[in-house]
């Protein structure tokens, strides 16, 4: 190699640089140019930052015992295994083509079953894949909804006020699970077994409407408490007339000088004062749907429709 360089550059009038017992005329710029070419050839991606594209995520959340893990495995494998409470999430990438032929059923998502215990709930918002969540399925145990509604409302409020989810307008499906146990309980309480099919649908609609109204009332209780705290703060956010017409969870920005630097920064804020209208899920900034389902009986059509919808 050294003899090759000596022969090729023998006519160049540059200072000689000794290499071992040989010496041949060569210049520093030529050495740098040759090294640069060598690096470009051996490292095609040199100087280029490459990032793997994140897989869109479907989040499965809810309180402990609502059936999240059972739903995860039923969607993944088509079977509902016996599950147990865990403080670690389950995660897998798969499509739903094995359980439906709906449009987009062959589209792969990363499904994550997040733990529902209160002491691990913050892990949901701090999870590395949280920014990649495309849709949320919020599972509710219908048999214990009445006594759990304060905790369900608190959890759901934290979701509705998440800056990441608000900015992305992440769609949410509230799925009231364990309808088989609910029907069994109602049949034991009702001596008339001749209820017609239309009556059953009417009862289902009344039940789910009652649950949604109860959830909205709980959210409004939290909203009122938050509003009173906000009014007591010295830097409470003023609400303009155009903001009063928006829903309680409207997202906007304001400018405020930094006390440390004096620099004016843009700060993301929420309307946290009473607007005069009761909040409803229909008026939320994101799309919120609700349904009844039964994971153990694989009655998941509304959830599958929600995941496959564009």
From TrEMBL:
Alphabetic keyword roster: Endoplasmic reticulum, GTP-binding, Membrane, Nucleotide-binding, Receptor, Transmembrane, Transmembrane helix
Chief place of localization: endoplasmic reticulum
Alphabetized Pfam families for the sequence: SRPRB (PF09439)
Name used for this protein in its record: Signal recognition particle receptor subunit beta
Entry keyword Membrane: yes
Organism listed in the record: Blattamonas nauphoetae
Transmembrane segments: 26-47
Residue span of region Disordered: 187-207
Residue ranges, compositional bias (Basic and acidic residues): 197-206
């Amino acid at each position: 190699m050294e003899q090759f360089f000596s022969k090729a550059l023998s006519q160049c009038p540059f200072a000689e640089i000794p290499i071992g017992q040989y010496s041949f005329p060569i210049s520093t710029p030529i050495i740098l140019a040759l090294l640069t070419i060598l690096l470009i050839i051996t490292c095609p991606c040199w100087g280029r930052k490459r990032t793997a594209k994140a897989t869109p995520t479907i989040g499965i959340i809810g309180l402990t015992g609502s059936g999240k893990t059972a739903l995860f495995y039923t969607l993944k494998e088509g079977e509902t295994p016996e599950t147990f409470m865990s403080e670690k999430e389950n995660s897998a990438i798969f499509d739903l083509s094995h359980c439906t032929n709906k449009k987009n059923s062959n589209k792969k998502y990363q499904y994550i079953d997040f733990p529902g215990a209160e002491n691990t709930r913050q892990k949901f918002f701090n999870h590395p894949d949280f920014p990649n969540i495309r849709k949320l399925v919020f599972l509710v145990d219908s048999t214990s909804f009445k006594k759990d509604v304060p905790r369900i409302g608190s959890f759901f409020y934290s979701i509705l006020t998440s800056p990441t989810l608000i900015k992305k307008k992440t769609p949410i499906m509230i799925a009231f699970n364990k309808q088989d146990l609910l029907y069994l309980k109602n049949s034991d309480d009702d001596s008339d077994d001749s209820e017609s099919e239309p009556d059953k649908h009417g009862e289902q609609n009344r039940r789910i409407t009652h649950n949604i109204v109860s959830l909205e009332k709980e959210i409004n209780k939290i909203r009122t408490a938050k509003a009173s705290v906000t009014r007591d703060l010295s830097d409470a956010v003023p609400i303009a007339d155009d903001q009063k017409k928006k829903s309680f969870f409207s997202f906007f920005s304001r400018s405020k000088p930094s006390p440390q630097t004096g620099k004016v920064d843009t700060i993301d804020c929420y309307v946290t004062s009473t607007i005069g209208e009761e909040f409803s899920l229909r008026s939320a900034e994101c799309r919120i749907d609700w349904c009844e389902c039964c994971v153990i009986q694989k009655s998941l059509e509304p959830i599958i429709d929600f995941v496959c919808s564009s």
